[in-house]
Design brief:
The protein is α+β, with helices and mostly antiparallel strands and 158 residues long. It has two domains: 59 residues, no CATH class; 73 residues, no CATH class. The chain is built from three helices and five strands.
Length: 158
C-alpha cells in the first residue's frame, strides 16, 4: 500500500537542512548568525589559553605584588577573591601596573607572590602556584569551536 503523502518519518534535521538550503544566501547568513556565538566564545577562551601558555612556557618570571582585592559573591555557588596588582620581572627590566591576577587566592591580603606574565603587553599575571591554569580555557575553546563545526556539518552535509 503506497501513498503519495509525504513521509512523516523524515527527521527534523532533514527538514531544517532543506529549508536552509532553499533559502540560499539567507540560509548561509542564518547559519552564520546561529554559529557566531559558538565561535566568538571559542575565540575568547582560546585567546586566554594562548596567553596562559605563553606565560607558562615563554613568559617572563618575576614577582606579583597584590595592590587591590575584591570579594565577589555570585548568585549561585561560592564567592572568591578577584585581585589585581603590579608585576616586576626578576631582572627589573619589565614593570607592568594594574594587571588581573589569575589565581584562586585564599584571601584578599596584599603581598608578593612569584609569578609569570606572557610579555610586555600581558593582560594577566599568572601566579606560579597554578602554572597550568590555561588548560581549562583551551579545552573550553576547542569544545565550542568543535561544536560549531559539528552543527554546521549537520545542517549542510548531504
Amino acid at each position: 500500500m503506497t501513498s503519495d503523502a509525504p513521509d512523516r518519518r523524515v527527521g527534523v534535521l532533514a527538514r531544517v537542512r532543506a529549508s536552509w538550503r532553499a533559502k540560499g544566501t539567507e540560509g548561509v547568513l542564518l547559519l552564520l548568525v546561529v554559529l557566531a556565538p559558538f565561535w566568538c566564545c571559542s575565540g575568547w577562551l582560546l585567546s586566554g589559553a594562548v596567553e596562559g601558555a605563553m606565560a607558562r612556557y615563554r613568559g617572563v618570571a618575576g614577582t606579583a605584588t597584590i595592590t587591590e582585592c575584591r570579594f565577589s559573591q555570585p548568585r549561585w555557588g561560592s564567592g572568591g577573591w578577584g585581585c589585581s596588582g603590579d608585576f616586576v620581572s626578576d631582572d627589573g627590566s619589565l614593570r607592568i601596573h594594574d594587571l588581573d591576577i589569575q589565581s584562586k587566592l585564599g584571601s584578599g591580603s596584599p603581598g608578593s607572590l612569584p609569578a609569570r606574565v606572557s610579555g610586555p603587553r600581558a593582560t594577566q599575571i599568572y601566579v606560579q602556584e597554578r602554572p597550568d591554569s590555561w588548560h581549562v580555557p583551551l579545552f573550553g575553546g576547542l569544545f565550542f569551536a568543535g561544536f560549531g563545526v559539528y552543527v554546521a556539518r549537520l545542517v549542510w552535509r548531504d
